[in-house]
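note to self: dont lose this again. the chain is below, predicted strucutre after it. 136 aa total, dont forget to put it in the shared folder this time
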Amino acid sequence: MPAEPEPPLTGSDLKTRMGIRDHWDAPNGALQPHIEALKSVLGTNVDVQPEWSIIQAELAPIVADKQQVVELVSADVGAWCKVFAGLLEDEANEDWTATVVDKAAGTSRLLVSVDVRALLRGHADGAGRGRRLPRH
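---
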C-alpha cells in the first residue's frame, strides 16, 4: 500500500520547516555542534526529536513567527547540551561523570525530551537567561 501523500504546506508549516532546516538540522548551525560535542564526551548518540506541532501550539500565544520558535528551542537545547557536556568534562564531577558515562555505554543513545512548559515558566517569571520571548 503506497504511503499517503503529505498534506500541502501552509505558510506556518513552511516557516517551521525552514526553521528546522536553518537552525535545528544545519550541521554548522547553533545546535548541531553542541549535540556533537555532547555525543563525543558521552560516548553515545544524542537523540533530540521535538514534537514541533505541540511546541508550536504551546508557544503560539507568545511567539508569532514559527521559524523563530524553532530558533529559540534550538538555542535552549544547544545551551542544555553545552552545559551538560561541561558538567561531564569538569574534573570536580569525576565520580558522577563516570557513573553517567558507564550508564550511557549500555545504551544506543541518550534520548532528550523537549518540554516547552519550562520555556513558558521562564518567560512568565522573567527567568530564561535574560532573553525575553517576543510577543505578537
